[in-house]
Amino acid sequence: MRAIALDRTSAKPVLRDDVAEPHLGAPDDLLIKVLEVGICGTDRAIVRGEAGELAPGADYQILGHEMLGEVVEAGPTAASDYATGDLVVCTVRRPCRLPECPTCAHGESDMCYTGKFTERGIFHAHGYMTSRVVESTEFTVKLPPELRPFGVLIEPTTVVEKAILESVRVQHRLDWVHHLNEEGAIAEDWRFVRRAMVAGAGPIGMMAAFLLRLHDVETHVTDVVPAGGYKAALVDSIGARYWNVAETPVAEVARQTGNIDLIVEATGIAPVAYELLTALGVNGVLVFTGVPGDRGGEFQFQGGHLMRQQVLWNQVVIGSVNANRSYFLHAVKDLGEIARRWPDALAKVITAHHPMENFETALTTQPKDEVKAVFDITPSS
Ligand SMILES: [Zn+2]
Ligand SMILES: [Zn+2]
């Protein structure tokens, strides 16, 4: 069986053809044929040696965490919910299962206290850039067949679902947000976000813009590519507004738009991320989702001014990583609605399909207009 993996000895990506076929183990296991796997900044950082870690003693680790697959065989327990041919996506992080970790015990491995989790394709576990995988139903969600063209976007969407739903929960502190929804489903009510900014028009930022527009939020997307280009046109086509912050700094964007309730950061560049505080509005929430390297990124800012503003304006800054299965369920529902509302725009998010043989180029270079590139692991016939 073939797999794109990071080789320990050479510290380079390789295409192996000697990986053993996996087999069903536990009764709730699924044997899954991998159809597509998205390539993301994390994969490229792993290949550069800046992120992730191989399991101790492993000669190689299969890359890839943004998968779309199809059930080939279901174990006896799994078979009550899954059938051959079902379209599925598996989550990324696996819980530490340590007694001192209440979050992992509650299905929230994304909030793990111990750091002793594993992550498929990233940290101490094989990923999905291979023909077949076995996974438990505990870490799998089913997709409707019409999501086949877009299902590979579920995982990046879950990252944004978590980031925004966490912000929504933070806003439980506001009584008027409670009063918005008399049925009590406030955890899923996005109406406190009247105006949002998304920093970075990569895949995470783009999916954030889609989700915010789906919830009828006035949305402003910032990046440093000129207006009128591929990404800016995509942003415009879903009713969001694109700003080139090389020309208009974020503080000026905020001055022109009015109070910004939520900012989703998706750049992974620390000075850019902290500058977003200069655009955050009264009672605003800023969520960081980008993961910069440990070194570099030094900058200077007016700490007095920003701290004063954070206190006087009741502002919150959240870091948000990964996503547990509950956010995958949200993503399946929302991506389905996005696909119905903006099928053409959503199709433009996937800018390249690579065969596995292209692994070297695809994992080490990023064309200018790329939003999301994917590997076709099992090419559709
Ligand atoms: Zn990713
Ligand atoms: Zn844990």
What does this structure look like?
With 381 residues, the protein is α/β, with parallel strands linked by helices. The chain has 2 domains: 3-143 and 349-376, Quinone Oxidoreductase, Chain A, domain 1 (Alpha-Beta Complex); 158-319, Rossmann fold (3-Layer(aba) Sandwich). 28% of the residues lie in helices and 24% in strands. It is built from 12 helices and 19 strands. The chain has helices at residues 41-47, 102-105, 154-170, 175-180, 203-214, 230-237, 250-257, 270-275, 303-312, 325-341, 343-349, 359-364, and strands at residues 3-7, 13-16, 29-39, 60-62, 66-74, 87-90, 93-94, 118-120, 124-125, 132-136, 140-143, 195-199, 218-223, 241-244, 262-265, 285-288, 316-319, 350-355, 372-376. Strands 3, 5, 6, 10, 11, 18 and 19 form a 7-stranded mixed beta sheet that branches. It has a 6-stranded parallel beta sheet with strand order 14-13-12-15-16-17, with helices on both faces. Strands 2-1-4 form a 3-stranded antiparallel beta sheet. β16, α9 (303-312) and β17 form a beta-alpha-beta unit. It is globular, with a radius of gyration of 21 Å. It binds zinc ion (2 copies). The site of one zinc ion (ZN) has 5 residues, from loops.
In short:
With 381 residues, the protein is an alpha/beta fold.
Give the CATH architecture of the largest domain: Alpha-Beta Complex
Tally of strands: 19
Number of domains: 2
In this structure, how is the largest beta sheet organized? Answer: 7 strands, mixed
CATH class designation of the largest domain: Alpha Beta
**CATH homologous superfamily title of the largest domain:** Medium-chain alcohol dehydrogenases, catalytic domain
Give the N-terminus to C-terminus distance in angstroms.
19 Å
Low-confidence stretches at least 5 residues in length (pLDDT < 50)?
none
- Classification by helices and strands: alpha/beta
Per DSSP, the total helix count is 12
Q: β content, as a range? A: 15-25%
